[in-house]
Amino acid sequence: MAIIDKVNGKKIYIVDTTLRDGEQTAGVVFANNEKLTIAQMLSDLGVNQLEVGIPAMGGDEKKSIKAICKKKLKSSIMAWNRAVISDIEHSMDCEVDAVAISISVSDIHIQHKLKTSREWVIENMIKTVEFAKKNKLYVSVNGEDSSRADIEFLITFIEAAKKAGADRFRYCDTVGIMNPFNIKSNINTLIEKTKFPIEMHTHNDFGMATSNAIAGVIGGADYIGVTVNGLGERAGNAALEEVLMGLKYVHGYELNVDTKMFREVSEYVSKASGRELPAWKAIVGSNMFKHESGIHADGAIKNPENYEAFNPKEVGLERQIVIGKHSGKAALVNKFKEYSIELNENMSNKMLQKVRELSVMLKRSLFDKELVQIYNDLLEEQ
Q: What is the CATH number of the domain that holds 64?
C-alpha cells in the first residue's frame, strides 16, 4: 500500500493520526462508533498505519481502541504513549501492533516542561523502547518539539533509540515553526548521520504543515503523519488529502490509495468533529471545481485542463459552472443548453445584465430556478 516515487522507486508510508492528534483539537470528541467508522474508512482508503488514541486514558478511549483492533483492518494499528512502561502495558492490553513513544527533545521542553536533563530523556526513552520491543511491538520514537531541538542532540537521541531497537523516529514540528527549506536540510542531515527511518509530523501554525511534510520526504523521510482535513492541535496538522495529491501531481509519486474516497471521508470527519469543511478547502472543498468568472468558466467549458489540475472525479467531486456577477455569456449560453434552450445574442445580453443585477442584490450566485425565472420574465416582455 506504499506510495512510490516513480523516479527512484522509493516507498513512502502514510501514518494517519486523525483519531489521536485530530481528536486533540480543542473541543473535538469522536463517539466510539465514529472512531470505528473513521478507522474503517481510512483502512479502506489505503492508509498504511492508523494512530488511534491513547490507551493510558482508560475508559471509552481504551474501549474504542480495543474495538478497532478487533476489526482486523488492513492498516497497522498504533497507540500513542508517554515514555512510561505502564503506558505500554495499556497499549498491549488493547492488542495494538505498534506503539508511538513520545518524549520531549528540545531544551526548552526539557528545562521548562519536564524540568530534567537530556540524559534523563534518553534514559527513559531507552527503557520504554526496550520494554516495548521485548513485547514484540513496532516502535516509533516521537521526538516532541524536534524542530526546536539541538540537531547534535537529536542525532545522539536517534542513535540511542536505534540501538534500543526502535523502528523509526518521528520528527515533530510541534509548534509549526519550520519552513520547507530548513526541514529538507534537517531531515537530510539526520538521515545521513543516523541511517534511520524518519516520519514527518508537522503542525500548521504558519500554514506550512503540508509543504513541510512533503519537504521532509524530499529530504529523505520514509513516513508522513497526516490527519483528515488537517484536523489537530491549534491550527492543525498536515492534511491527508493535500499531502497525497501533492505527492502525486506536484512530485510525481504513484498513489496506491483510493482517492475517490477523499470527499466522503472528509465530509464524515467534518461532521463527526463538528468542524466545518470550508468550500475553499484545498483538494476536497466544494469550490475546487466550481467556476463562475467569465474567463475561467469559458476556459473550463472548452477544456477543463485549462483551469483544473486534475479530474474532480478523482477525489469524489464534480465540476460545476455557476452563474453570478462575474459570469460571461459563454457560461450563460452553456447553462441554458442544459435546459435545451438556445440563447440568441440578444437574449443572452439581456439575461447577463439581469443576472448581474440580481447577483449583486442577493450577494451570491444564482440558483437554476432564478435563472429560468429571469428568462421567462424576459420572454414575456418581448
A: 3.20.20.70
